[in-house]
Design goal:
The protein is mostly beta strands and 402 residues long. Strand 10 and strand 11 form a beta hairpin. It is elongated, with a radius of gyration of 28 Å.
Amino acid sequence: MKALKISVLLALAAALAWSCEIPFALDDVSEPALYVQYIPAGGGNAPGMKLAYADPAFGKDSGKRYPFSTADIHISVNGTEIPLDGISIEADGNMATLKPGCRFAPGDKVVLRVDGHGVQGIQAETTVPEIPEIASVALEKVQRDSSDATRVVMKLPRDAVAGEYYGLKTSLRTTTVTMKVSRMPSFPTAAAAAPLPVKTDTSVTVFYSSAGQIASTADLGNLDLDAFASISYQNGFISAGFFSGEPLMLLSSNQFTGSEYSFYVNSFDSFDWIDMDFDFDPNIIDDSEEPQPEDPEDPEDPEQEEEPYFSVVIASKQEISLELYRLSDELYNYCKAQYLSSFNMLSNFGVTPPNFTYSNIIGGLGIVGALSVKATDWQLLSEYELSTEEIMALILGAMNQP
């Protein structure tokens, strides 16, 4: 029996080795074509459009370039061509970004046609999906392996069904109040009643965090590799980047449990490492000196010296908002193909199949797909605020240190 197992393994290894040596020609792989990325949005801002002249990756550069103009672009909605007066075109190398200024409603059938110059013209169509609805969003404090985290449960008005495709963005907003106190010479605690020269600064930061379902390494065994996918969707355009931009988690009925989808934020074991500030302690006072101006100062002139200060975070809160997108079929397929082209776990073992792509452009490359979006209000994740006694204790303790 052992010999049989060894023979099977050797045969498999030989088959894999043979399958890795399939020759194919790299010259003149395909003809030049137009690349298009156009994503009409229902109920949102007017979308942009990307157009480019694409040569084959391993072919010879034909030297042709597409002279984009408004006369070459035709957009029709529900069978009626719409005027594109005032369209703006921004050229960036071989890529042109256009802003037609068109707005769409759910159910609109959008057809795009671009005439070619030296290359074949293209045509594609899509239908704007309905605006999604969110019945509720629940936040639950949980313990995730080695850290505290928040479990977010988003619920739809009804169960998600096969053939429906969604995208989910998670935005986090942090508001921090910092108090700066001028450093003074050491003095007795009784001087605490004296007024101190202070000022406060409030800063607000907003960033996007992945709404993925991986919260610990234990979840890898239950991860559906065929369903998990995330891309970056930002300013109306998409890219395959996962750790940059604004991550959009792709969701089908496989990720929902009935009408619910859940994920984790602020979990040490999750992909949301950007949420964590490993060196941050709200009770640590920053006793660094005030930054010096660029111009050199006269050390003998005390009036030019900047007074050092203490800085302490006295209040902070973090809020969360969800953006739920409904994606057309072709847009979901294109986004998933973009993700798989960059992130394929099987490639680490040398057994990955050739990457594939998706396009609904007739005569060209790219995507014309639509989406609609619904955003929630901000909900509180966490907050704290120091009392007056706590603030004074921190300041006096630091000022009286030798």
